[in-house]
Amino acid sequence: MRRMRAPARRRAWRQAAVIAGAIVAVIAMLVAAALIMLGATRPATGSAAASPSVSRQGAPAHAVAFASPGNGVTGTTTLPPEPLDLPLLSTAVTGITPAAPFRLAGASSLDRARALECLSAAIYYEAASESDDGQRAVAQVVLNRVRHPAFPASVCGVVYQGADRTSGCQFSFACDGAMARIPARAGWARAARIAAAALAGQVFAPVGLATHYHTYAVTPAWNRTLVMTDAIGAHFFHRWKGYWGTAAAFRQRYAGREPLPGPPPRGPTPIIALNGPMPVVLPITPATQVHPPYRESGAALEPPSSGDTLPESQILDRWKDSGKPLR
Description:
Blueprint: H1 6-41, H2 109-127, H3 132-146, H4 155-159, H5 185-199, E1 212-215, E2 227-232, E3 235-239, H6 292-295
Helix pairs in contact: 2-3, 2-5, 3-5
């Protein structure tokens, strides 16, 4: 470079600058793309993250503020015996069968209010920062369980099933302390809107008859024994195999009698049944254990002597006549 003449040296520097600028631009674009992908795929707290490869609808821009603290996984339970009139399944059950619309038939206003609160809590704490479709899918799983004979026949009973034990919650948020957080007003309002629509009969067909789900960050033990129906946002949805995963199995009627929203108290509650009044036995201290100065404290006092002799007055002589009337 030193032996080159000045014009040639300047041309070489310009060419090097052009090449360096192109390299820097390419590197900058690669870094920007990597940052965008990292921000889109990083899981939020708990089950809140949405994967761009499986999300049907982008989460709202403000959803990050409502990230749910739950770990986003449901439990499972033992299936009841198959009915005697079990229909023959000639072929394997394939495809997605949409659930029937849910109906709160015969529910009182109190049952409806409690069902709405419980379903809203499940949606909020399990999928607060998911898209609307992601929240609808969680609501559909809850209502599918209400109509399945393996689960309770009420919304609150399904949501808080197993929460009275130290382990065994069917929905993780009911046991992991997530409910200690005060819900964000806007996030709760969105979850309540999704819950109200689902309780009014709106069906989210893509998840079909799913009764289980988990996030891509969790691999539960039941994962390989069920059939995946769909992946929405951060959640994978599954149904049972065989008869218990078909529409004929979802025959349980809504029972109402919704329990109080929230986890029930843990541990047994003592119950005392009395057939009559119980005698109260007061403890008696033996006389040998009583302090000597107090042993005679209850003895009767001796009566005064019968004599007319009065005790000598203690009044001074100059005051003895103070009570006589004046003349």
